[in-house]
Amino acid sequence: MFDRLREDIASVFDRDPAARTTLEVMLNYPGIHAMIFHRMAHALWTSGFKGLARWLSSLARFLTGIEIHPGAKIGRRFFIDHGMGVVIGETAEIGDDVTLYHGVTLGGTSWSRGKRHPTLGNGVVVGAGAKVIGPILIADGAKIGSNAVVTKPLPAGATAVGNPARIILHDDPAEAARRAFAEKIGFQAYAASPDLPDPVIEAIRHLLDHMQQADTRMDRMCEAFSRTNPGFCDQKPDELKAEDLVALQDENQQKQA
């Protein structure tokens, strides 16, 4: 019990820069309070004291604004940021290192008994106000944007936004190559960010693919010419840096003003 509590407190410091001291976290973070109540309620639930478990979870909801059914299974280092309005259903299952923000619902779509709430894998992040509905699997490392409504499974590492939720990023080799190339040219701040509108993100992803292909082709051409003229490719273009782009943008804004 105390080992889990220490892990929970450590996870707050890892994921919330506003946290300053252990005492502050213990006194002021409703997510920590809700998890203390839930572990006691879940122990009562699994021991057969279901009525007492429900009463304890209702008390926790009154005190914290977070409703967690005592039957829900929750892993280690679970962090609820802010917490108000979070609802977690009876058959929900949550892995390790999961983060939920305020207003999140892990709900069901059926009145029938049995599995009817979602399963969240390890490292999942669910943004404020999002709704994850039904006995679906949100695989490891997936991210759900604020106010999204998810009713279908998400693969590992995917980022989903909108209502109904749609996947805008996949954690696949092609995406990894885009990110690596974006870092190489100092363009990471603008590369395939989940916060951008869909048409913009698609345009940037295609642009990065095209730039990467052109860069590879130029390298091959330089290698070929260097066989006849060893100094042909000695002069390289200036490195593109994100801060230079930001400075240029600020300069243009000042001129327009």
Largest sheet: 6 strands, mixed
User: Strand content of the residues, in percent?
Assistant: 5-15%
Q: Secondary-structure element sequence?
A: HHHHEEEEEEEEEEEEEEEHHH
Whole-number mean pLDDT: 82
What does this protein look like?
β14 (about 160) and β15 (about 165-170) form a beta hairpin. This protein has 7 helices and 15 strands. By secondary structure, the protein is an alpha/beta fold. The N and C termini lie far apart (about 60 Å). The longest helix is centred in the last third of the chain and has 29 residues, at about 200-225. The protein has 2 domains: about 1-170, Hexapeptide repeat proteins (UDP N-Acetylglucosamine Acyltransferase, domain 1); about 175-255, no CATH class. The chain has helices at about 1-15, 20-30, 30-45, 50-65, 175-185, 200-225, 240-255, and strands at about 65-70, 75, 80, 85-90, 95, 100, 105, 120, 125, 130-135, 135-140, 145, 150, 160, 165-170. The strands form 3 sheets. The protein has a 6-stranded mixed sheet. It has a 5-stranded parallel sheet with strand order 1-4-7-10-13. Helices cover about 40% and strands about 15% of the residues.
Key terms:
257 residues, UDP N-Acetylglucosamine Acyltransferase, domain 1, alpha/beta, 42% helix, single chain, five-stranded parallel sheet, six-stranded mixed sheet
Brief description of this entry?
This protein is of the alpha/beta class. The chain is built from seven helices and 15 strands.
